[in-house]
Amino acid sequence: MTHPRPFRAVLLAAGASLALAGCDRKAAPPAPPPQAVGVITLRASPVELTTDLPGRTEAVEIAQVRPQVNGVIQKRLFVEGSDVTAGQQLYQIDPSAYQATYDSAHAQLLRAQAARVTAQARLDRYGPLARAHAVSRQDYDDALATAREADADIALARATMSGAAVNLAYTRVLSPISGRIGRSLMTVGALATVNQTSNLSVVTRLDPIYVDVNLPATRLLELRRELKQGRLSRAGDDAATVSLTLEDGSSYETQGRLEFSEVNVDETTATVVVRAVFPNPEHLLLPGMYVHAELQEGVDPTALRVPQVAVTRTPHGDPIVMVVGADKKVSIRPVTTGPAVGTDWIVTAGLKPGEQVVVSGLQKIHPGDTVNPSEVAQTDAPQGQKAG
């Protein structure tokens, strides 16, 4: 049967439309452009490593002034809160009883010396007579023994007199060291005794002064290992310097130097006591003050700095970064971080100079993605940049 020409045209048009629709369903959508990310290219730079730790000031010398003889305090011979020198008299204890004992011991010495003269004269006379057999040998031996006893009496009297002189001198209570004396804890008229538990006063040497801080034992091991491996080098004459920040936030003008570190680790805190000594001519630092000490440990000449925003962590807490390879693809890289330098971490393992680390756009990329990296300016770390 022959169809009319208009109907055949409609069928051809419908077929063409269906063919075009099928072609549209088979065409793939255009691929999205690579994600733009900001990266930095790692460069090695020298960084001075420091550790900021809380600490306490300690006096270099503290002398507790206590009586060494019994007696009533007659005088106080210093101004409370003033500076005193070693050997300066601070108190006067009633010396009358000790003066009498000294005088008695002196008289005994004079008596023993007089008896020694008589005994020696007799011995001198008996010597020739004994050789001439004019006196018996027994008489000569008795004279010799009497002379020896006189010598012993003199030695005993001198010892007694020396002891009395020491006790008499102790009635003048002297400062054992130079420093600043505190308040008087006993007043004039009070009875001082040798075995009393309280002090008369306390003298403290304030210049220089110690600052003791507790350094974690693990950090001390890290420092020694890094120095042994050559990763750290001593910063010349300043290698052992320490800076102080006072409790009110101000900086102490003068730097100190490390004195020593304790040989034992505190079992309860796992720390080692590190002591620094500071000049204190103005007596601004007082014992017991809370301070922050900044220990200058050394210089890492090839430190790699990575912005802290580029470092994320796995669910287990391990630090990772996103690295852009030569093919512009992103990969995850585990790293080991060290101390912080401003807003950066020092990366001690996992990266090397020349690699590109993603610092912006991290939320929009995944491992294996192809990205369009652009360099982000990074603040250079000049010589002397500190890490804490």
UniProtKB/TrEMBL annotation:
Where does this protein have compositionally biased stretches of type Polar residues?
371-382
Q: Where is this region: Disordered?
A: 366-388
**Pfam families the UniProt entry points to:** Beta-barrel_RND, BSH_RND, HH_MFP_RND, RND-MFP_C
User: Any idea where this protein resides?
Assistant: Cell envelope
Q: Where is the Multidrug resistance protein MdtA-like alpha-helical hairpin domain?
A: 101-171
Residues of the Multidrug resistance protein MdtA-like barrel-sandwich hybrid domain:
62-203
What is the name of the protein in this document?
Efflux RND transporter periplasmic adaptor subunit
